[in-house]
Amino acid sequence: MSLYRILSKLEELGHLSQDVRHSQVTNHSWEIIRPQLEAVVENVRTQRLQRERNQIIVQRQALAKSVLKDYEVPTDVPRAFWRPLEEFIFSGPSFYSIIHQPNEVSVTASDFQPALDELPVLLANGARTIQADLLKRMIDGGAPDINSSSPDLNPDRIRSATSYHCLYYDHPASNLVAALLAVANLDPNTTAEQLDDLDLRFHCPSWANPSGRLALSWRDAVEASNQLRSGPWEVFSPEDTAAIKEKELANIGDERLRFRCRMCADAKWIRRRELEHHLQTWHPTVDHPDLKTEFQLHPLRPPQPITFDEPKTSAHS
Fold it and tell me: CA 7 to CA 256: how far, in whole Å?
């Protein structure tokens, strides 16, 4: 509040203008009101400096994000550990020290190169931390044939590093995955990443209905079995799986955010029904759009399940 407003407030309280405007502030009076006035001014100053600081941090983080967007992941870094949340990366000492430099320091994209050079080490350490934490959770959960242990780890760091999942050992899910591997004639030691690459489709005969069989990826099968009681599982034949995937790709009703444009520099994940509109709006020069080549599919987000009504003899138990 300005001095003029203070004087006006005194007049609003009924004090005469000539008294207010000609009042003298003695040293004694000043010492009484000074602490309160200085506290108000200091609070305003602190809030202003914090806003300015936050704005600079946000700008530097945006610059770091643009640098990370073009970062090429080393081939020896497992896919499951990339991409971690940006908060996890920015909390590392190499990025943190650049982003949180004093306000007067000018930060450019090239300043992040040393941090990028250290990123493989950060990812490798994060991968080891995740593996150690998962091992501990499996031991605590009673997973069979595991007799080693690891120290307690920070679960918040694990959640940040994995981006999507808080890891734990789930007995029912583990049993179902084993059943899916068995019906698909796969090695019991097949990893989640290998299952993602195979991209098979399964169905549970006990869930059949007149409109067809619900075709599920292994991830959807695990999630669905946690909510519904399931019996034996069957795997679709390669021919049926190919037909199912074509139907999934054409499914306008797929509400999952699982498509990302390869032609856009900073593309976000969008739904199936938004693809044509995106191409027409931003890439009208594309003569014959091919959804399989112009859009990247989310590696960990399978299509929304569809029903498949081909004869049941095409599935194998």
Answer: 61
DSSP H stretches of helix in 169-283: 171-183, 192-198, 218-227, 238-249, 275-282
CB proximity list for 94: less than 8 A, separation 6 or greater: 114, 115, 118, 119, 122
Helix, strand, or coil here: 216?
strand
SS3 assignment, position 219:
helix
pLDDT digit string, tens, across residues 162-211: 333 334 445 567 778 888 999 999 988 888 888 888 999 999 988 877 78
Q: Which of 232, 247, 224, 230 is nearest to 184 (CA)?
A: 232
Distance CA 74, CA 89 (A): 16
Nearest alpha carbon to residue 171 among 228, 226, 235: 226
Nearest CA among 254, 240, 242 for reference residue 306: 254
- Per-residue tokens: 314: 């095409």
| pLDDT on residue 188 | 83
Question: How many CB atoms lie under 10 A from the CB of residue 154?
Answer: 11
pLDDT per residue over 90-117, tens digit each?
Answer: 888 899 999 999 999 999 999 999 998 8
Helix (H) or strand (E) holding 99: helix 93-99
Residue 74: CB atoms within 10 A of its CB come to 11
Q: Which residues have C-beta within 8 Å of that of residue 144, sequence separation ≥ 6?
A: none
Neighbours of 182 (CB within 10 A): 14
The pLDDT of 40-58, averaged and rounded, is 88
**What is d(CA 25, CA 166) in angstroms, rounded to the nearest whole number?**
64
**Upper half-sphere CA count for residue 232 (Cβ side, 13 Å):** 8
CB 216 within 8 A of CB 305: yes
SS3 label, residue 236: strand
Cα angle 129, 137, 169; round to 5: 120
CB 302 within 8 A of CB 217: yes
